Structures are given as structure tokens and as C-alpha cells.
Amino acid sequence: MAALGWLTPRRRSATARSVLAGEASAEAARKNQEAPAPLDEAAEPDFPVLGDDRAAAFFDLDNTVMQGAAIFHFGRGLYKRKFFETRDLARFAWQQAWFRLAGVEDPEHMQEARDSALSIVKGHRVAELQTIGEEIYDEYMAERIWPGTRALAQAHLDAGQKVWLVTAAPVEIAGVIARRLGLTGALGTVAESVDGVYTGKLVGEPLHGPAKAEAVRALAAAEGLDLSRCAAYSDSHNDIPMLSLVGHPYAINPDTKLRKHARELDWRLRDYRTGRKAAKVGIPAAAGVGAVAGGTAAAIALSRRRR
């Protein structure tokens, strides 16, 4: 087993490596951002605020926007393309099964997956992995997007605001997902490359915990955003540093620790895994429709598994 400390921050505050990872991710995201979506006059008038160009939204990916973890789905796609052996696929499958059953990030499992991914992509060209990422999205990820969370992101886009994914997944894969969802761009873990070829090393550390907060902070400064007017969405207590940065934090499909923390601070909650109502009103109406669709899809999937 890889060391637990690789993924789980040793301190609550950001380390120098967290800052480096955050700044590198913000720089990569700004270089690849998409044009903002057109305004929709039917957007929710109160929140998000229509036309507020100093506001933006930041969405965690795994179990917030998408069921499961992007790195595991990516691993399945690489196995299909013979990037690694059957025993490695078995490990990916076990990690993904644990993630789906537990509904939370297991640092040891996710660390091991990222260690494996780095060794697998070493020596491959960045452009090659980006192309493969497009194919893998269609094969494994598109059907796992939570409709409710997607509706929340669309509400920000319809208000003329930028929307970013913020994830520990590789920035190239995160960029593919953001583009397919029509989002502005993505902040993700930056793998080192030289002349367009992966070296098997990271720039800083994985974009996780405090590093995510540093990435959001760096991007907000570069984009001229007012964080008190921004929103952030996540399922994990590991993202409390990022959620605490903004004026509008949301707990989506929250783990036990985040649910407790959100209730104590009166943050908005929404759980699309069961179709439960939000713990606090004020979420755009479009998200309510998505919540029903997401809950229905989850119920159907569970019923099929039990047969």
C-alpha cells in the first residue's frame, strides 16, 4: 500500500507544495478556459445573480458532479487500450467499488490509484491522453453525471457566470469533462511534462484539500473575482477549505463529516443519491428537476443490482 500521507494533508493549513499545486492548476485552467455561456433571461433572479461577472462557481467532481471517481473510470479506459495488465484493472475495480459503496473518498485507495496512473502515463504524450480522455468520457463517464448538480452548474452559466471544476483528477481529464458539460474550464492535478511528454511526476502535489483552496484563491485573483460572491459545491469534508473560501458554500451528496459541518454553519445541502429535499431553500428551480431525475436514476440502478 502506498503511504496514506501522499493524499491526506498533514496539516490543516496549506503547505508550500499545496500552494504550488494550486497555482499550477489555476494557470493551466486559465489557458484552457472556454468562452462563457450566453445569458438566459429566465435565470433565477436571486441566486445566482444575473450578470454578476465578479462571481463564479467551483464544483468538485468525484461524487459531486459525477458518480464515482474520474481516475477509476479513466483507468478502465486505459486498460481497454492495453496500457496495463489485468491485475491492475482488478485493483482499479476494487477501489471504485469501495468508493461507490462508501460514498466517500478513501485516501489510501485514491492515493494508490494516482500512483498507478502516474506510472502508467509516464512516457506518453499529453495530446495522446487528451484524445483518449474524450473517448473514455463517452464510454464510462457521460452516463454518470448527476442531473441535479448539472442543473446547478447550468444555473450559474445561464446567469453569465464562469463555472469551474476543481478536482484531484488530472487536469487534462478534468478539462475534457468540463468541455463536454459546457463549463468554463477545470482546475486539476498537474502532471509534469517535458516537450509534451509525461515524466511520471507531479507539479507540487495532488489538487486535494488545502491545494484546492489555493487553486481557487489563485484563479479568483487572476480573474478578478470576489470570493464572497462566489459559490462552491462538494461532497467531501476534505473540501471544507475550498467551501469556506466562498460566500455561498453548498454540500452536495455530503459525507457524514461534511453534513454535520454544513448543518452547524447553516450551509445549503442537497443529496441527489436519494432524492431527499434540500436542507435549506434557495436552490434554483432547475436543480429541483435535476434532483428528481437523479434520484430516479439512482433508484433504477439500485433495483437492477438487486435483481
Structure write-up:
With about 300 residues, the protein is α/β, with parallel strands linked by helices. The protein is built from 11 helices and 8 strands. A 6-stranded parallel beta sheet has the order 3-2-1-6-7-8, sandwiched between helices. Strand 4 (about 190-195) and strand 5 (about 195-200) form a beta hairpin. The longest helix has 22 residues, at about 285-305. The chain is globular, with a radius of gyration of 18 Å. The two termini are about 35 Å apart. Mean pLDDT is about 75; it is low at about 1-10, about 35-45 and about 275-305.
What strand line-up does the widest sheet have? Answer: 3-2-1-6-7-8
The tally of helices reads 11
User: Beta-strand percentage?
Assistant: 5-15%
Structural class: alpha/beta
> What integer is the average pLDDT?
77
N-end to C-end Cα span: 35 Å
| Beta strands, count | 8
Kindly state the percentage of residues in helix. 40-55%
Low-pLDDT parts are 1-12, 35-45, 275-307
Oligomer: single chain
Structural Rg: 18 Å
Order of helices and strands: HEHHHHHEHEEEHEHEHEH
List keywords for this structure.
307 residues; alpha/beta; six-stranded parallel β-sheet; 11 helices; 8 strands; disordered N terminus; disordered C terminus
